[in-house]
Design goal:
The complex is a heterodimer.
Chain A (H helix, E strand, L loop, with lengths): L13 H8 L3 H8 L3 H12 L2 H18 L9 H23 L24 H15 L3 H12 L4 H8 L3 H23 L1
Helix pairs in contact in A: 1-2, 3-4, 3-5, 3-7, 4-5, 5-8, 6-9, 7-9, 8-9
Chain B lengths: L2 H12 L11 H10 L18 H25 L31 E7 L11 E3 L2 E5 L4 E6 L10 E2 L9 E3 L2 E5 L4 E6 L5 E6 L10 E3 L2 E5 L4 E6 L5 E6 L9 E3 L2 E5 L4 E6 L5 E7 L4 E2 L3 E3 L2 E8 L5 E6 L5 E5 L7 E6 L3 E6 L3 E6 L5 E6 L9 E3 L2 E6 L3 E6 L5 E6 L8 E3 L2 E5 L4 E6 L11
Antiparallel strand pairs in B: 1-33, 2-3, 3-4, 4-5, 6-7, 7-8, 8-9, 10-11, 11-12, 12-13, 14-15, 15-16, 16-17, 18-20, 19-20, 20-21, 21-22, 23-24, 24-25, 25-26, 27-28, 28-29, 29-30, 31-32, 32-33
Classes of the chains: A mainly alpha, B mainly beta.
């Protein structure tokens, strides 16, 4: 679910979903608005850029609106929406990766939160470590980033991550282990 | 550090705090975007067949799908095949050949309506027409959707807050403009409400926007060239060409062709933003909007200088094939191009129908003012807007002058559709020119 352990979002009302699936834009708006902050934070965590997060959320919402009439299991609306958002973030990051050889960074790439912006408040060493992890995270492949965000920020159980990413639970477990190792490797590079 | 400590640190490093909230205008932007987006409903919803036993559900679904496909095929066959975007953007389409959907007016047309706008419509812009509406943006930043039949403004007063000097584009329920403030702004075609706004960096965007494959390509006066998703405004890629771009690009075969001030001409992969071949030097001055047809690029050079030429380049590698100049080397643009004739417009006031086989003009049509805008070609009629404040039509085969309609101010290029020519002028007028009897000439070339 988009509503993780730390933040609750009311389940999508069947009435609103039905109306939105029938083409009622106001109903869709009513569904999206209460979820927007949550979606934005998830996109921010994956893309590390406010501008990219904004683009990804907008892309995801438009895609969800388009595809909503085909959503069969309406009780899965939140994880379905999260899946679309994760895909939008991954696509966005991949496009950016392709853009790295270009002469201008796509806008917002310097908008990552500043050091200490997440309220670390710990000892100096720990603050330095958090910063190093943050930089290491930004070195990771978009798919790995998405997986780590679902696990660490969204605190989704493995079964929920599996639904969001469309893979079996066993595969997700293995990928999560690999993602942690990838983060460790990136951290070593950061510490050199 | 223990594993648990490590997990806590990773969580701290990765997570975005709950105090972070979505930008205040994001919900509204999404609301406008979805109102401009059609839902994907497919051909039928199988869930509605729940009253049938399962084997019959599949059979009925398949039968209905086949029936729907047959009906769609029959409808497609019965409709005239019109390119979807011909009047959705500058110069008729992304290849900028100037061939428009038409039909044009028959006989000797007159002004059907004349609407005054708050700002000038520069000669680099052109009205866009879709579904009975004429969309205009002017140099005051005002935006409007006019009823094509009457000229009545269908929107409340709308502005993008900065002058618009290039031609906008119409895409997926959005009217998209580039501004002097360096923004690309999308407005809902329903009511002109803003859907999204993306800055390219602040330099004016005076070149016309290009629309293709769901993307908007925009270039600015600091040399930035960018591809944006037409629905969301997300920037797919952004590059610098190193010199101001004052005129727009053309696109064909997945490649953007665009020139910059200083005479460099580029071929850019539309998907990735990478250069396809090394830039070609076209000499001093600026480079105009190219046209792409017949495996060749037709582009005018020498803008901002006193001498100009049309260069014909290979699309494959930019190799020069041939060039063409007026006798006194005046500024020239590829007004329109077919498989046999390149219609060259010049600031000497003439239009030249240059034979592509012999490179010699078949005919020369004369007006009494410079031709700074490109031309529009529909069937056998070539429409030209002259600085003598007249919109002309020439017979495209013989060069005979078919008619001329005077307007107030230097006219923009005409949008030729539905038996009408829609033009704006540098004095802020927008005109519909059509046959009072409602007759029109056949479309197609």
């Amino acid at each position: 679910m988009i509503a993780g352990a730390r933040t609750s979002t009311a389940p999508a009302s069947e009435l609103l979903l039905g109306r939105a699936a029938g083409g009622d834009a106001a109903a869709f708006d009513a569904l999206i608005r209460p979820r927007l902050d949550k979606l934005f934070r998830m996109a921010m965590a994956i893309t590390r850029s406010e501008a990219d997060a904004r683009d990804a959320v907008q892309e995801a919402c438009v895609a969800a609106w388009r595809q909503l009439p085909r959503l069969r299991e309406q009780d899965r609306f939140d994880s379905w929406l999260a899946q679309i958002l994760v895909n939008a973030c991954r696509a966005h990051l991949r496009r950016q990766r392709r853009a790295e050889v270009r002469e201008i960074a796509v806008d917002g790439s310097d908008d990552a939160p500043a050091a200490g912006g997440f309220g670390t408040g710990g000892h100096g060493e720990q603050i330095a470590e958090v910063e190093a992890i943050r930089r290491a995270f930004e070195r990771l492949d978009p798919d790995v980033r998405a997986l780590l965000v679902l696990h660490y920020q969204e605190e989704q159980p493995l079964a929920e991550i599996a639904r969001t990413l469309g893979a079996p639970v066993g595969t997700i477990k293995w990928r999560l282990s690999n993602a942690r190792k990838a983060l460790d490797r990136a951290l070593k590079v950061e510490r050199r | 550090m223990t594993i648990n400590d490590r997990d806590a640190l990773v969580r701290l490093a990765i997570s975005v705090p709950e105090t972070a909230v979505a930008p205040a205008d994001l919900a509204d932007s999404i609301a406008v975007a979805i109102r401009a987006t059609k839902q994907n409903r497919g051909l039928l919803r199988l869930g509605r067949l729940g009253w049938l036993p399962r084997p019959n559900r599949s059979f009925v679904a398949l039968a209905l799908l086949l029936l729907a496909a047959l009906v769609a095929f029959a409808i497609a066959l019965s409709r005239p095949r019109l390119p979807a975007h011909l009047l959705s953007e500058y110069h008729g389409g992304p290849d900028r050949t100037g061939i428009m959907v038409g039909p044009g007016p028959a006989g000797v047309p007159k002004i059907a309506w004349d609407v005054s706008r708050p700002g000038a419509l520069p000669f680099t812009t052109m009205p866009l027409v879709q579904d009975g509406r004429v969309y205009v943006a002017d140099a005051s930043g005002a935006i409007a959707a006019l009823d094509a039949a009457t000229g009545t403004n269908l929107w409340p007063s709308r502005s993008v807050g900065a002058p618009v000097r290039g031609t906008p584009a119409l895409a997926d329920g959005l009217f998209i403009v580039g501004t002097d403030a360096g923004d690309v702004v999308a407005l809902s075609t329903m009511d002109g409400a803003q859907a999204w706004d993306k800055s390219l960096g602040g330099a004016p965007i005076s070149a016309s926007l290009l629309l293709a494959d769901g993307r908007i390509f925009a270039a600015s006066e600091d040399g930035t060239l960018a591809a944006l998703d037409a629905v969301s405004g997300a920037i797919a890629w952004k590059i610098s060409l190193g010199a101001p771009v004052l005129h727009g690009a053309a696109l064909s075969g997945g490649v953007l062709y665009v020139g910059a001030t200083g005479g460099r001409f580029f071929a850019i992969d539309a998907d990735t933003g990478h250069q396809r071949w090394n830039p070609v030097e076209l000499g001093p001055g600026g480079v105009g909007t190219p046209a792409v047809a017949n495996g060749a690029i037709y582009v005018g050079s020498g803008l901002l200088t006193n001498t100009g030429a049309i260069h014909v380049l290979s699309v494959g590698d930019g190799t020069a094939q041939w060039s063409w100049e007026t006798p006194d080397q005046r500024l020239v643009h590829p007004g329109a191009v077919t498989d046999r004739i390149l219609y060259v417009v010049s600031d000497d006031g003439n239009v030249y129908a240059v034979d592509l086989a012999t490179h010699v003009p078949r005919w020369t049509g004369m007006t009494h003012g410079a031709l700074g805008t490109l031309a529009s070609l529909v069937g056998n009629a070539l429409y030209v807007s002259s600085a003598d404040r007249t919109v002309y039509a020439f017979d495209a085969t013989s060069g005979a002058n078919l008619w001329g309609v005077p307007v107030i101010g230097v006219p923009t290029m005409g949008a030729v559709v539905d038996g009408s020519v829609f033009v704006g002028t540098a004095l802020g007028h927008v005109y519909a020119i059509r046959d009072p009897a409602g007759e029109s000439t056949p479309a197609g070339s």
